[in-house]
């Protein structure tokens, strides 16, 4: 099996690549070749002791000719399309956001179409969408909730979901769009993620440091641990196409909790007096984007085997696992 990961040097991409390298398979299928794409890589993968071929390619995903040349050499079985320009960065640079989030996705789909038509081998494409597609939400979110994205990033992800569904309908790709919630805990870095504070609060409070939370104690959000997201990405590629039925787009099961509940869980898991360490200074924009999340039902995702962390203590405990 040949597996491709775009955005392979990112937070989720690195973890997914490391999981595949350590397990040597996706589901029950053995991986023989792993191709990693990103603008640059922090370090090279030493595959000399591995029973699979690993290639890292640095380049601009918005360069469609580079993408076609790089991916046209070997047929692909599974594609994880994780590369994106996230929320804050896409708002600041509209052209960059569209070129990566929309144009590169279309080029990747055209490559899949060309492969299917030339050799009759339809690749599985797992697209990392986002709960940002939901935007303004009602009191209960379920599979029938209308999409009302409030940022360009969310709008771009809606476009990706729609075209992946259409290419799948036409038999050119076996697509699965997974709407990822907040993923915890991201390393401390400038990534353009407006929700980075959700990772920072776990890291800082777990070490006994004070933290100023930009949302109120009662603000509610959704999130999953990185290990849980990796499990769902692997399952997303492994689930049989026949089980997808009427939809190829899934809002992943995740936990809904208040900031006060998260602070309590961090204190319990890491034995810290977190109530004294945290203070709340709500930022209206941040709270509007990330602190007004309602209850969530995900029957379609539940039916095909996607899962959340189980409980908030487990999420907090797993969030800092290496």
Secondary structure: elements and pairs:
Blueprint: E1 2-6, H1 11-23, E2 25-26, E3 29-30, E4 33-38, E5 53-58, H2 64-71, E6 78-81, H3 87-92, H4 94-119, E7 124-130, E8 140-141, H5 152-169, E9 174-180, E10 182-184, H6 197-206, E11 211-213, E12 220-225, H7 226-238, E13 249-251, E14 255-258, H8 259-270, H9 274-277, E15 278-280, H10 284-290, E16 295-296, H11 299-303, H12 312-319
Parallel strand pairs: 1-4, 1-6, 4-5, 6-7, 7-9, 8-16, 9-13, 10-12, 11-15
Antiparallel strand pairs: 2-3, 12-14
Explain this structure.
By secondary structure, the protein is α/β, with parallel strands linked by helices. It has 2 domains: 2-183 and 223-251, Rossmann fold; 185-222 and 255-296 and 311-319, UDP-galactose 4-epimerase, domain 1. Helix content is 40%, strand content 20%. A 7-stranded parallel beta sheet has the order 5-4-1-6-7-9-13, sandwiched between helices. Strand 2 (25-26) and strand 3 (29-30) form a beta hairpin. The longest helix has 26 residues, at 94-119. The radius of gyration is 19 Å and the shape is globular. The relative contact order is 0.13.
